Write a sequence for this structure.
């Protein structure tokens, strides 16, 4: 039996699977996301750890007496976030997450200090404010006292691996997202770290995704009831794990993941096949090969933001249903293109294709006749438009996309999938089990402990797709609204930037 | 003696009884909905108004405990009825009234823009063209409802229709006539033969009697006197369009005095001798001194309507609390919004949720909420909604100032929106004008009652209105906040300029 755990933005998800890929147990445990200021996104690693322990205990209780058959586990984790660890192994401050945009100035600074050319050559990525490097520099410049206490900087899931095994390591799929790691050659770039003004000593040893880190500590075994001989395998970044779990590991395949953020991911065996301008992320895959990735920052988050702020009544009165199902049902009453209501989902700035942390979300063409249902549908559509933006950048790099697999929370809604198929104008495949990166992590755990020969073998045995969804006649309508969506961005981004600057200026 | 004023509004009718010194006795309100069967349509069958008028008058009279014989007279103001109600020879309505909010006369507006020189129409009427104006709506009926057009004996404004039902006398007043625009000669104060010909609107179909707002049109018929509880023969006075009547009720008689009337929509206006006309604003004769005074106003299509829409779509929780506790849902929404700094942390709203009237005159303009981030809460958007109404007020004021008009540093404010001190403060901080609220919030119906007083001779001269009103303490501009708003206001203006050309493209999907 294998355990896969995904340390996500909203909570931790654990799955236990059989060799054939059957789900034996799953559990979700949420934790709090802190937004102390506009653009700030933090979580407390201690709260992650608490949630993990709880999830593990739930698993062993539920699976008992078979829990001792858990021979291997691996974690998938939200990327880029930085956990600052002191020499005592304690967390110094809340982790700054992937979707935090405070380090706007530091991003520029690194770009200036290191130079775009060197960055693209040595780490094959341009650092965004979401990436780890600018966050570390932000700490150095804004919280020098905290920075002086730093012993090691870990990525989120590596902190959990450390708590599980006592070992301070990372692996290359996650290290790729720091903008300090040479993705092609799979090692830290001393040159970039140094030029960026950071300290090479802060970065842990790097291993492969499927390498065993060690056994779980006796303390953890005792606390959770997990077999003390269970090994912890290095695991991977959530995107790499998600792709693995979806069976998207080879050239010619494509994955769209609709979680908090939206991701379009295309694997490649050729490290030279990447966007020369660095608009796409170029990261290591769990296979040891690579993938290109485009990201829209607020996908599921857009819907969640709307739910949290505007749907109190629905939440309160809703007894039996998933709240999102309820909201989507409302949206189904509205025709395609939301009777003109248009949403640009830049609630947290945007990565692909705009690479702009200052732009903001926008609802436009609102008429007094629009209802809450229109707003919900416009959000589902807006997120799909932004995914199409991502796909268009990849298409420009001659990455052919005829069929995509969609995973993540967004894939649960047939209605949203149809909107995405119409707006992306592609055939969409979904998986029989949509358990996301946690499932991929479990497969990695299986490869790590030798149950599968390699990742491809694991995918062949354990990943099954279900029926395809095809574009409908709405695709044509959406082709037009997509163009207007783009036009709105072009016309308004200057305004958003101005408004952002005024807001920043008057904020105390 | 007592005076009665009734204002027939877009979303409700309100009647009020006052004594001859303007002291409030009683009031009554009846709500109704506008018919919006199609996108950009807004119409009403006049029976809805008639029934609301009768009901409110009856209730208000009952509440007052006064004797029917002590009522000197009654005057009416009404929403701007756009086309007015097309009635046949027997004064039977043939088609609903296309009210001011209705935007269907797009083609007709375009035709006028392409075929009638701006100098010509503005030169004669003091107004330009938009689907807001009644004459474009009449042109729409002519084209799309030819049978209605053929049978139309006269286009009757909402309050004139009520006056007709109550008295059997058909007439209109100068403000109502002037507001039709297009065919009204603003200098000669009568229908322009030349414009009637150009626009294809025969003078015969326009109101045949134009009276002063303070003229007695007729006497109350027995049927309605009985239904209401008034005496048969009670004088019924002409009245006028609600905006200038509200303007009068706030005490405006001199140049420089200006009033924001913020209800469902917003009218900001001032009076002058006719020097300060601009095609970006609306101008027609005032409701007193109509021979020498012109009322000029700017109007945003939304104001209270925005708050109401927001409450209905996103404030269901507050509405529920309102039911249980009696605290208004708006007050509850405001409590939250009070925590939000000026400028709503960068959220800017274009309030064009129903297209827009002045000064941009764009039926395709739509609402836009920009600058949203995950950090923003519902309260940010609510506050930004309130601010957007203030940005639009400022926009209208700036156009007026552009004609050379001098405005007093205090702007008077009346209407439903003025009930919210919080919102009024936002108006002050955004516009840079101190806001002066009336201590009683009766607005247009009070003006009607005053007009009833002038019409019946109970009141000797318009200047007495100054004795009727009292103001609440001035709400002053906060200079710091004003500075912040100055910056956001620039973005607000720029936003529309940047996206106005995309709206028509999107309207295909609306």
């Amino acid at each position: 039996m294998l355990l896969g755990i995904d340390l996500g933005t909203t909570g931790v998800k654990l799955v236990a699977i059989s060799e054939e890929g059957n789900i034996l147990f799953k559990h979700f445990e949420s934790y709090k996301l802190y937004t102390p200021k506009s653009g700030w996104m933090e979580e407390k690693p201690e709260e992650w750890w608490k949630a993990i322990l709880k999830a593990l205990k739930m698993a062993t209780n539920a699976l008992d007496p078979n829990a001792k058959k858990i021979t291997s586990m691996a974690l998938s984790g939200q990327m880029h976030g930085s956990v600052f660890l002191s020499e005592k192994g304690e967390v110094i401050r809340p982790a700054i997450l992937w979707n935090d945009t405070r380090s706007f100035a530091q991003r520029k600074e690194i770009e200036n200090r290191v130079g775009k050319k060197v960055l693209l050559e040595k780490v094959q990525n341009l650092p965004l404010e979401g990436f780890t490097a600018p966050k570390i520099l932000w700490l150095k410049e804004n919280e020098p006292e905290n920075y002086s206490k730093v012993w090691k900087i870990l990525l989120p899931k590596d902190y959990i691996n450390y708590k599980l095994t006592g070992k301070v390591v990372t692996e290359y799929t996650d290290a790729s997202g720091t903008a300090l790691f040479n993705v092609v050659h799979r090692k830290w770039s001393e040159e970039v770290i140094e030029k960026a003004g950071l300290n090479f000593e802060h970065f842990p040893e790097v291993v492969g995704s499927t390498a065993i880190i060690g056994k779980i500590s006796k303390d953890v075994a005792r606390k959770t009831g997990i077999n003390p001989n269970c090994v912890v395998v290095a695991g991977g970044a959530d995107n790499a794990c998600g792709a693995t779990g979806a069976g998207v590991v080879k050239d010619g395949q494509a994955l769209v993941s609709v979680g908090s953020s939206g991701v379009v991911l295309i694997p490649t065996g050729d490290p030279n096949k990447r966007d020369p301008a660095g608009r796409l992320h170029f990261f290591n895959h769990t296979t040891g090969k690579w993938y290109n990735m485009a990201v829209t920052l607020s996908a599921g988050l857009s819907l969640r933001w709307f739910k949290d702020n505007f749907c109190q009544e629905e939440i309160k009165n809703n007894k039996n249903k998933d709240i999102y199902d309820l909201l989507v049902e409302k949206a189904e009453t509205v025709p395609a293109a939301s009777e003109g209501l248009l949403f640009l989902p830049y609630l947290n700035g945007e990565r692909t294709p705009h690479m702009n942390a200052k732009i903001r979300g926008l609802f436009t063409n609102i008429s007094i006749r629009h209802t809450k249902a229109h707003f919900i549908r416009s959000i589902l559509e807006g997120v799909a438009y932004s995914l199409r933006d991502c796909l268009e950048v990849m298409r420009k790099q001659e990455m052919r996309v005829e069929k995509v697999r969609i995973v993540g929370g967004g894939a649960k809604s047939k209605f949203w999938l149809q909107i995405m198929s119409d707006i992306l104008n592609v055939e969409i495949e979904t998986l029989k089990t949509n358990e996301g990166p946690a499932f991929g992590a479990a497969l990695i755990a299986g490869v790590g402990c030798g149950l599968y020969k390699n990742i491809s073998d694991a995918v062949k045995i354990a990943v099954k797709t279900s029926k395809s969804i095809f574009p409908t006649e709405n695709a044509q309508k959406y082709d037009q609204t997509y163009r207007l969506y783009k036009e709105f961005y072009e016309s308004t981004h200057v305004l958003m930037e101005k408004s952002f600057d005024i807001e920043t200026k008057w904020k105390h | 003696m007592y005076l009665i004023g009734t204002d027939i509004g877009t979303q409700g009718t309100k009647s009020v009884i006052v004594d001859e010194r303007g002291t409030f006795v009683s009031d009554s309100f009846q709500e109704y909905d506008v018919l919006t069967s199609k996108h950009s349509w807004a119409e009403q069958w006049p029976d809805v108004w008639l029934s609301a008028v009768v009901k409110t008058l009856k209730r208000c009279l009952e509440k007052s405990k006064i004797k029917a014989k002590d009522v000197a007279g009654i005057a009416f103001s009404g929403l701007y009825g756009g086309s007015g109600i097309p009635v046949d020879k027997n004064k039977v309505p043939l088609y609903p009234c296309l009210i001011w909010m209705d935007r269907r006369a797009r083609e007709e507006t375009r035709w006028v823009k392409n075929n009638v020189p701006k100098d010509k129409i503005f030169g004669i009427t003091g107004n330009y063209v938009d689907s807001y104006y009644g004459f474009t709506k009449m042109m729409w009926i002519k084209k799309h409802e030819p049978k209605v057009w053929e049978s139309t004996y006269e286009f009757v404004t909402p309050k004139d229709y009520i006056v007709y039902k109550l008295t059997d006398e058909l007439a209109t007043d100068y403000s109502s006539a002037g507001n039709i625009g297009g065919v009204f000669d603003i200098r000669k104060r009568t229908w322009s033969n030349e414009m009637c010909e150009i626009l294809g609107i025969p003078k015969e179909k326009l109101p045949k009697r134009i009276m002063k707002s303070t003229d007695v049109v007729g006497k109350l018929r027995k049927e309605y006197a009985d239904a209401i509880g008034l005496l048969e023969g009670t004088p019924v006075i002409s009245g006028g369009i609600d905006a200038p009547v509200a303007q009068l009720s706030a005490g405006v008689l001199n140049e420089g005095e200006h009033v924001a009337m913020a209800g469902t929509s917003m009218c900001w206006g001032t009076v002058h001798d006719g020097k300060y006309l601009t095609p970006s604003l609306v101008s027609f004769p005032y409701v007193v001194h109509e021979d020498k005074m012109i009322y000029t106003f700017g109007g945003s299509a939304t104001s209270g309507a925005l708050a109401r829409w927001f409450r209905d779509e996103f404030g269901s929780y507050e509405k529920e609390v309102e039911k249980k506790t009696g605290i208004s849902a708006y007050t509850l929404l405001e409590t939250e919004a009070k925590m939000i700094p000026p400028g709503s942390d960068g959220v800017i709203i274009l309030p064009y949720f129903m297209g827009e009237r002045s000064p941009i005159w764009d039926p395709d303009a739509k609402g836009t909420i920009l600058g949203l981030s995950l950090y923003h809460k519902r309260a940010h958007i609510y506050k930004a909604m309130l601010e957007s109404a203030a940005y639009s007020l400022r926009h209208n004021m700036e156009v007026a100032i552009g004609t050379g008009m001098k405005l007093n540093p205090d702007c008077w404010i009346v209407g439903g929106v003025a009930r919210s001190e919080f919102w009024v403060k936002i108006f002050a901080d955004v516009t840079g004008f101190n806001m002066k609220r009336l201590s009683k919030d009766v607005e247009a119906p009070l003006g009607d009652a005053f007009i009833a007083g002038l019409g019946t001779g109970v009141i000797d001269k318009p200047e007495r209105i100054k004795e009727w009103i009292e103001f609440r303490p001035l709400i002053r501009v906060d200079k710091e906040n004003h500075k912040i708003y100055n910056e956001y206001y620039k973005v607000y203006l720029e936003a529309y300029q940047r996206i106005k050309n995309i709206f028509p493209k999107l309207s295909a999907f609306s």
In short: Chain B has a mean pLDDT of 95.
